[in-house]
Amino acid sequence: MAKGTFVRAEGLLLQARQRDDDETGLRVGFTCSKKVGNAVARNRAKRRLREVARQMLSLYGRLGWDYVLIGKAKKTEERPFDELCKDLKKSLCTIHEKHSSK
Question: How far apart are CA 36 and CA 62, in angstroms?
Fold first, then answer.
């Protein structure tokens, strides 16, 4: 996954890449480093990322892609939920526009 494309948004980082295998589903992972805070803060941030992904990837994600949502210190946990949704939507559109222009 380290070869994926990164997009930075206010409330999160998104890394994505198109898979070369025949699998058709989309896959998603979540991570928050210790910079986000203690275990409670990291888990809260990951729960928020999971819910954002659940809502937005069904609309804007693409089959055959892998996505990793990365929490940001203070931003992911404190950002209003609708703004996190907008961040992910914009990031997904940016990644897919970059990929389609190749």
Answer: 28
Q: What is the pLDDT of residue 102?
A: 59
pTM: 0.90
CA of residue 9 relative to chain centroid, distance: 10
Quote the tokens at residue 64: 């055959």
Residue with tokens 């991570």: 31
Pairing outcome for strands 12-18 and 65-71:
antiparallel
**Residue 24 is part of which domain span?**
5-95
Residue 59 identity: L
CATH number of domain containing 77: 3.30.230.10
The rounded distance, in Å, linking the Cα atoms of 59 and 33 is 27
Structural domain contains residue 65: yes
